[in-house]
Amino acid sequence: MEQYTQLGAERRRSNPILVVDSYARGISIGRVGSGEERFDLQIDGDRKQSPCLLRSRYVMQSQQPLADLERNLERLSARGELRQSTIIFGVTTDPFHPFDEKFATSMKFLELFERYSPGKLIIQTRSPLVVIGLPILKKVKNTTFVSIGLETPSDDIRHRCTPQLPSVSERWKTVRALRRFGLKVGIQVAPLLPYGDWRQDAMAFAEDLAAEADWVSISSIAQAAGNARPSGVLAQKLAAERQFFWLRADTHRPLHDALHSIAPDKLYHPAAIEVPNPQMMLFGS
User: Cis (ω within 30 of 0) for the bond into 191?
Assistant: First the structure.
């Protein structure tokens, strides 16, 4: 899993990184690793969705979390800090998940960026519903990066392994639609699922990725599990189908090497940071 290991303390102080997740009834936001001020915004009494460890232990209890968020963004903007900040939206949850109230919360959060624009906004999602935010995203497209999770080019594999996720074709269409309107769009192949013969078919998948995305990141299921032996539901499904190769830590190498041979520049995030992606890896362990 990608980490912030290459970001020094000095850089974090001068270029703050704020990690944001939306929930059915609120927003959580925290600063990464600086030891400075951090805050959560969640509705009083709604602690079922506990923030990840990057969040502060200090909680602003509120019946109006988005109003509190706007006040904090206004304060950061007035101090000139927001323009120096990178906001990563969708670290541990998918902000455009269609089946609960978080989608409406996410849309309201995006609307704030018409008035309070960060230096960089990175959105991580698997949901085609992100295109509903295009009217807003187009206005901040010069500083916005969208990562779409796509684990395999095979809809048959997607249906067998992750039937709850949107179809492969819908996610390809989402990438194309966002890029058509001038947004910078990457694909996170994480965790990597079978795409055919791991050597012979790697180049075909790599060529599709290079043609459709502005950047690509690739991680194996074992990397999603912290390089431990994968043991979650997804690993069990692959083992039941005797797809043991895809549980190895080096499963990503053929695809990574194929992409590196044809488009090495696509392997670097244009925001020039390494982005945490537990949301993208949630099937790994």
Answer: yes
